[in-house]
Design a protein that fits this description.
Distance between the termini: 48 Å
Shape: globular
Strand order of the largest sheet: 6-7-8-3-9-10
Order of helices and strands: HEEEHEEHEHHHEHEEEHH
Structural class: alpha/beta
Length: about 260
């Protein structure tokens, strides 16, 4: 029985993971950048994908979002295979990429309405969804302002609002706090965690900053394209005999150079 089976009840749908990556590898020419990667993001779960720059995090995101085609393994979003049922899978996906993609000469609402139009929503429905999305990120009173007037943290919050316009089940965020000051980082993380709790979103949060996880999170450590650990933070610390995620990461990866931390 699949997630699309009409006989599925609410409890069965809740048990269907937001994301399943199973045995995925990827190469660019002779260089293998992902090697048999597997992970699961359940509904209502915050999963931290932790790895240094070049670990393969962005490549994995590109496979999940179909920017690249996975030719090995399987990637399912809410039970829909991204290769065989791409439309159904991607309808359930929201993404915040590392690079900024808002049009700074448009207002917040104009940016959101443009995105909604790509999903086929009417102007009236786009306006309604835009207002709700801005409320989710605490910017309901800024809709008519130009994007260029916002701070870096506020820009990120608008991108999160845009990703929520179609009410996805899975949210991918690729290094969403890079370049933000401490207050802005905390604001962005708080908003995403509230979405996990209130909207039952499954979140895959990719970062190289070691202090962005909580002890209740699931952590996937990706290093040189290989998953070295997949599990809870307490188990990670016990397994490595360390007292922090940073120390555990260093122990597992053998990284000797200083690991970048947030300001």
């Amino acid at each position: 029985m699949t997630a699309t089976d009409p006989k599925l009840g609410a409890a069965d749908k809740e048990r269907t993971p937001a994301l399943v990556v199973d045995g995925v590898s990827h190469s660019f020419g002779d260089k293998k950048v992902l090697d048999n990667v597997s992970l699961t993001v359940d509904q209502g779960a915050f999963v931290m994908l932790l790895g240094l720059n070049g670990a393969g995090k962005s490549t994995l995101f590109s496979l999940i979002t179909r920017l690249y085609d996975n030719v090995s393994g399987e990637i399912d979003i809410r039970g829909f295979d991204v290769r065989r049922k791409a439309s159904q899978a991607l309808q359930r996906l929201g993404v915040v990429f590392q690079s900024r993609t808002l049009d700074v000469d448009l207002t917040l609402m104009q940016n959101l309405k443009y995105h909604a139009a790509l999903h086929g929503y009417s102007t009236r429905e786009a306006t309604r969804r835009g207002r709700l999305a801005l409320e989710l990120v605490g910017l309901a009173d800024r809709g008519n302002e130009k994007v260029r007037a916002l701070s870096g943290g506020q820009l990120r919050r608008v991108e999160i609002a845009r990703s929520m316009m179609h009410r996805p089940d899975l949210l991918l965020l690729d290094e969403p706090t890079v370049g933000l000051d401490l207050g802005s980082r905390e604001s962005v993380i708080k908003i995403v965690r509230e979405l996990v709790a209130k909207e039952r979103l499954g979140v895959l949060w990719a970062t190289h900053l070691m202090d962005e996880g909580l002890r209740t999170d699931q952590v996937v450590i990706l290093h040189q394209g290989v998953v070295l650990y997949n599990g809870g933070v307490p188990q990670l610390l016990t397994q490595t005999g360390t007292t922090s995620v940073r120390e555990a990461f260093r122990a597992l990866t053998g990284t000797k150079a200083p690991i970048e931390e947030a300001a």
